[in-house]
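Student: Please help interpret what follows.
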Amino acid sequence: LYRPGASTATVLVSIGIGVMTVLTVVLVERSIHAELAGQMPRDAPSLFFIDVQPDQRDAFDALMVSRHVPLELTPVVRSRLLTVNGVPVGSEGPPGTKPEHRWYFTREYVLTFRDDLPRDNTVVAGTWWNGEPRFGSARRIADTGTAEAAVSIEEEAARHLGVTVGSALVFDVQGIPVAARVANLRSVNWNSRATNFYAIFAPGILEAAPLTYLGAAQVPETDEISLQQRVVDEFPNVTTIQVRDVLLSAARVVDRIIVAVRAVAVLTVLAGCVVLAGSLTAARDARLREAMILKALGAPRRTVARAFAIEFGILGFAAGLIGTVLASALAWSILHWMLDLPWVWAPGALAAAIGLTTAGTMAVGVLSTYRLLGKRPSVLLRGEL
């Protein structure tokens, strides 16, 4: 491996990069598919119903009861953020806002109100308002143009907005400014596929605002189509979203992207094989001389072949190990920093990458040099004398 003229470093880099590229694609693909399908909670809703009007609530509940479908309807109010701690948000966020964080200031916020803490939510700062005095007055929107209430903010949104417990926010609710004081910050398990919100108000402020209801239900797959048809017939304004179809569509898009990346990975592996073959061709004379000297000293053909196999096996194992380490680091970086997905440990894929790289490099090396072992040592030695 370290003899003069050896292409060990070149082969290690070329094969290692090929292994890194292919394995990175595999690891990222597994994590994405696990996120889309494998981690779906058993009790997650399969259908969402949007824009149920207040005068339709009882009839909609009755339809679900008749179909034996448990349903949770949540009141929602659409709004925009006006100010944060007295600083106007504007069309692009406060001065100095990074482009990737403007979305938190300029997006449309869907608000709700409730007494109890939602499932899969955990208070990480402050206290929930059950039994606690609320900030300011509890006057309703219908009574005055301004009001103040307690609001709970999701911790990630709070970090980007630059707010904490006690911060002041003003929302534009249907043209009416509603002042709110942050009572607590929440950690939300978004993987639950339940109805979650960035901002939740304490009761007493939003009830009089124009609101609609959002419903989430868990329905057997065989009943989804028929239930959708009933909803369309009786409530044509209500939008029904099938979670299963959304996940499948996302998976199809991911599969198309993965195919393109795999093509690039295959080209990288082929380039590594070309480099390996080129290095073997360049070192052909040196290997021939080495094999003939060993045979002249009494080494059987299988002993020389075994020596070559061990050499190429070590080379392949080192390249596979380097590629695996780099692929793990690269895949984790992509998942953590770009896709915001959890790392899925895949020991089988890592072991297979090392094993296949070792076996493949050994096979290519032995097959390309095995013909050299059939030559007679006398031909080479006479030529050197």
